[in-house]
Design goal:
By secondary structure, the protein is mainly alpha-helical. It has one domain. The chain has three helices and two strands, in the order H-E-E-H-H. The protein has helices at residues 2-11, 34-52, 56-68, and strands at 14-17, 29-32. A two-stranded antiparallel sheet has the order 1-2. The protein starts with a helix and ends with a helix.
Length: 69
């Protein structure tokens, strides 16, 4: 768990909250950063865009390519 937490910290996905922070009610710990929230919403937009793109020729190509996997 410590390894995952340290990697997430280096990526900027989580932030450490001090016990002196009024915003979080003087509780110490880890919270998701604004960078994480933005990346999740960007990922959601990308998935929705991918699903909305319904090109019949591309769909046939995708099905054929899955046969080779």
């Amino acid at each position: 768990m410590e390894i995952v937490r340290s990697k997430m910290r280096r990526l900027g996905l989580i932030d450490h909250v001090s016990r002196f922070n009024v915003k979080y009610g003087y509780r110490e710990g880890w919270v998701f950063s604004t960078r994480f929230r933005k990346s999740v919403s960007d990922l959601d937009k990308s998935i929705r865009l991918f699903k909305a793109n319904t090109d019949s020729k591309q769909e046939i190509k995708d099905r054929d390519s899955f046969k080779y996997l």
